[in-house]
From TrEMBL:
Signal peptide: none
Pfam family, one: ADH_Fe_C
Protein name: Iron-containing alcohol dehydrogenase
GTP-binding is among the record's keywords: no
Source organism: Aequitasia blattaphilus
Length: 397
């Protein structure tokens, strides 16, 4: 088994009415004045925000609100949160929502603890954060796994760039996971979330590492679980059992457990982020629209890995390795299609892109062809272009 370092300190409180523990947990981690970061939709309409505020008031915890986080979390909104947190003198950040609210909360926590440095400098790797305010999470969308991960993404709309920061400082102190809080989700965000969970593991699964049998077993089991319960949850979003499995899988999929010893590839995330930044596409949609085109471009790098994936996740039995690998890719597409997710760029909101746009995205994703993406197969600007080009065709072409 390959070497690894594993650190996952987030306390998970799971189950019905788990949000009632919010004040108790904030106090446990020495919070007394909180910045609440949230979106502008279901958290407000469902009454969850008011419920949480009453809990904080009952426990004598002061709070300031910062509402309005959007999908593909915005840098400017995070900067506003940093300013608000500093002016209010908060000592804790509570994010209520999905990945966008959580990543915004993480950015605010880093910025408020480092007031002399603009947060984008950390996201662009120009500075390394040394401290951050503690963050707690109440999860309402099983997707990004940000409630237990060291990652946070921001979108800089001034330069059309979406980028992530990975740091142990980003790991929340606690994550409150009540599957019932997801019951009001519209179908597409739910499907995007299920896709994101699956992709967080599959992008750890396809790397150059080998021989990590326990890690492979965990990853393969999680993917089977997401396929099985993802379909059930999509058909019936109020199925508590299925949503429980999806929500817990989301946390495990991005706390590094499913890639120990393997590392991460995340090339599809890298080329997908460009679509989110330029066209404001949903993150999960960019991943499903690109994955199979990436896979068909690179599977010959390690065809045995694709054969193993197909056999263990989809029970594909075929002695012809080429056929087995391609069937694994096609079957993954079928899973995405069962969730009504796009499997090509042409199925996203902007439709078929011009060749000039594809080349621009390839250039952006590789920082002007100065960096490569991924480890399973190094993706330079030309290969990124080839993947975009494949994905820009109609399914079946």
């Amino acid at each position: 088994m390959d070497s690894f370092r594993y650190y996952s300190p987030t306390e998970i409180v799971f189950g019905r009415q788990a949000q009632e523990k919010t004040g108790e947990l904030i106090k446990k981690y020495n919070g007394s004045k909180v910045l609440i970061v949230y979106g502008s939709g279901s958290v407000v309409r469902s009454g969850l925000l008011d419920e949480v505020k009453k809990i904080l008031e009952k426990d004598g915890i002061l709070y300031v609100e910062h509402g309005g986080a959007k999908p593909n979390p915005r840098l400017d909104f995070a900067r506003e949160g940093v300013k608000k947190a500093i002016e209010a003198g908060v000592d804790f950040v509570l994010a209520i929502g999905g990945g966008s609210a959580i990543d915004t909360g993480k950015a605010v926590a880093v910025g408020a603890a480092n007031p002399k440095t603009d947060i984008w400098s950390f996201w662009m790797d120009e500075e390394v954060p040394k401290k951050a305010l503690p963050v707690g999470v109440i999860l309402t969308l099983a997707a990004a796994g940000s409630e237990s991960s060291p990652s946070a993404v921001l979108t800089n709309t001034e330069i059309d760039r979406k980028k992530g920061l990975t740091s142990d400082l980003n790991r929340p102190r606690f994550g409150i996971l009540n599957p019932e809080l997801t019951f009001t989700l519209p179908k597409y965000p739910l499907a995007c979330g299920i896709t994101d969970i699956y992709m967080h593991t599959i992008e750890r699964y396809f790397t150059k590492a080998s021989g990590n049998e326990m890690t492979d077993e965990i990853a393969e089991g999680l993917m089977r679980n997401v396929i099985r319960n993802g379909k059930k949850a999509y058909r019936n979003p109020k199925d508590y059992q299925s949503m429980s499995e999806i929500m817990w899988s989301g946390s495990l999929s991005h706390n590094d457990l499913t890639g120990l010893g393997n590392g991460k590839d995340f090339a599809v995330h890298g080329i997908g982020h460009v679509l989110s930044a330029l066209y404001d596409e949903a993150h999960g949609g960019t991943l499903s629209a690109l994955w199979s085109s990436w896979a068909r471009e690179v599977y010959q790098e390690d065809i045995d890995r694709f054969v193993q994936y197909g056999k263990r996740v989809f029970n594909i039995e075929n002695e012809n390795k080429e056929e087995a690998a391609l069937e694994a890719i096609e079957t993954t597409e079928q899973f995405f299609k069962s969730l009504d997710m796009p499997i090509r760029l042409t199925q996203l909101s902007k439709g078929k892109l011009e060749d000039e746009e594809l080349r621009k995205m390839a250039d952006i994703s590789t920082f002007g062809d100065t960096k490569t993406l991924g480890v399973f197969c190094r993706i330079d600007a030309q290969k990124a272009y080839e993947i975009y080009k494949r994905a820009n065709e109609e399914p079946g072409v």
